[in-house]
Amino acid sequence: MEAKCSDPNCAIHGNIKTRGSEFTGVVVSDKARKMAIVEREYSKYIYKYERSLRKRSRIPSHNPECMGAKTGDTVRIAECRKISKTKSFVITEVLKRAKE
Q: In 30-81, which ranges are E strands?
């Protein structure tokens, strides 16, 4: 959104490289500073029962100031080097803003 970003851990304006996995999910929490919990749903097929399970995972990811993702936003996250103990993903794009 903003033209300038001073965050060194921003995937676009900073000097952090993304690699590996890339997911789309919904932000379920943005309470922590510069961090968002992104929840993604996926299905896993179980061969024994010939059925699919719906599963979800909550991924802690870095939320740069220029992205400013809020709860309910649909975002794209990409894997990067470890930023902290739990964060190894960074938000690269906000696909859809939540309704106010």
A: 35-46, 51-62, 74-80
